[in-house]
């Protein structure tokens, strides 16, 4: 706990919190379902061309898709998970993520319009929540931190809400 | 933030099933009324009842006596001006003519169908105009504008007055003759216009706008300067003159006719092509073809000339197209900016312009999110610029909408811009990394190859292949142009950071300079793709409210350190600015951030909440 200190560095990737580890599983399941659908489609394509004059032997295409898809479903979430980091600082929320595209986002707490905590079916099973931060900015009016412990997400939400409500500057929200 | 986050939902999403929210927000009403309102999609009685109830609520509000004199009858549910009916009827005439067109052109018994359709149209469309008119009502309270409309889908829309960004009054030629006007009420909630009153009398339009503005001033409090006291004391029923420009209003900019024409000469528009085609589609192709064939002898000379010299013909075509485009540009500009006036009225900008359609709008200075200097190579060569104000709630696609200075020399634009928001253009701008040329060039080349290679692969060998090379490959002749384009993009891309703002310049043909004031920054971003990281580059971007989605001020390909430093500086400036403001407002530093309070929002470097 320090007094009015120099503003936090926005670029240091140290001291970042990572998401809940179970988020990897959630991502893997979601991707797995997607890959399964695609594999089935490709499999039926293969089946339909079983007696045609195909250049590839039966099942090759399906095999390729299944192998690549499995790799995608199993390993990509790990990379994604490793790329995710965030930190709630005294004046701002800092987020970095992205495997191919590294995106770093700084949302000043003063700029937050409102916050949601949301869950989808799968996330509910793992009691994960995602924090959705709405700003008035136009290109990306909501910034999302997925894979938080639900309780924790709610706690962050309440604290940031408190910060907003205590704003001494009664001015236009935008 | 004056309003709690719960105020956020945009009013546009209301439909018949929604319980009207005016009851809950106007006054604290018992739940019975709102449950009664939930079945409000039934016919008249309940609807009118709800209007009256809301009205009571509005009256209750008045009792504290803060109501300005101009409000008057606006609190009663109002209908639109009766001439609206006539206008809508006239507007439906072209459709009628279209339906009748086949009959008119070729009267025969086969065309009874169209007559029938026309009759059906008349029986349905005309009554629906009437019904819509009778179902439409609007009224103002101190806190909101309430618009009820809809024949089958009843809509109840309430727009919080404090959220109103811009009140625009528009008069087309017809409306001007009839002395009526369209009022557009725009808010931050959505990208479009939220409330449209089409049409009310011009006097009423001014009264509505005036009432909205004075309510806003009241909610803002005493801090806003009362610049137009004469209007405030004016009685609504009296002379809210069509002019309504107070003496205090300072004229910032106006364009005499010559200037408007001159500005048109720098604008080029090919819209006439679209117009020509849209007219053609109403004609039977066969008839058209027959006509052309029949009159072939008249065109024979032209056809011969084209055969004699295709090159000459092509040049002439292009020149004619250009000439037409140029003339269209002048005409469009003349129509749009004729009689352009921009005033500064205390804390808001007001502009009025237009030849056939006169538009009048006000933009509060506070609501200006960014300034944009806009030019093109030709205009820039002669030193001409346009100034636009980025606000939220305005339709981004609607051209000329946000323009506050359509055409002026840089110095003048600067002077006017400074009245809106102080800025200091720092020339020359910082360049981005020259590596960006290479990156863009490679990207264009890959893009070109994606088109060319498959096309060449499937190109039949006996098709066009100049000098034995399949035609698609000839597209690679454009390569030097791509390189040139990448280079030009680099030279026209730049940025600057000072104490007040971030400046970003982009664009080769449409050239933009964004002035993004620190206090309007919202979210700070950096982005680095795999390729950028390999070259040690980064892009950065500061999000502002109301930024367009297609051309936005991202600074692309800056050395990583530089980008981080620039963004850090902007971020710091932002926090310092607001800390100073809080200090000024409360006399102390932001208590939310003080050492005692900090455990509320721990810095992750020192504690994690998971540990608690």
From TrEMBL, chain A:
Keyword terms of this UniProt record: Membrane, Transmembrane, Transmembrane helix
Residue ranges of the TM segments: 32-52, 58-81
Record-linked Pfam families: bPH_2
InterPro entries: YdbS-like_PH
Domain annotation YdbS-like PH: ranges: 81-159
Designated name of the protein: YdbS-like PH domain-containing protein
UniProtKB/TrEMBL annotation, chain B:
Location of region: Disordered: 1-75, 588-612
Keyword Cytoplasm carried by entry: no
Keywords from the UniProt entry: Membrane, Transmembrane, Transmembrane helix
Compositional bias (Acidic residues): 53-64
Transmembrane domains' residue ranges: 111-134, 260-283, 311-334, 441-459, 471-488
Keyword Transmembrane in annotation: yes
Composition bias, Basic and acidic residues: 19-45, 593-606
Biased composition (Low complexity): 1-17
Alphabetical list of Pfam families matching this protein: bPH_2 (PF03703)
YdbS-like PH domain ranges (all copies): 133-211, 337-416, 490-569
PANTHER family: UPF0699 TRANSMEMBRANE PROTEIN YDBS, UPF0699 TRANSMEMBRANE PROTEIN YDBT
UniProt name for this protein: YdbS-like PH domain-containing protein
Lineage of the organism: Bacteria, Pseudomonadati, Rhodothermota, Rhodothermia, Rhodothermales
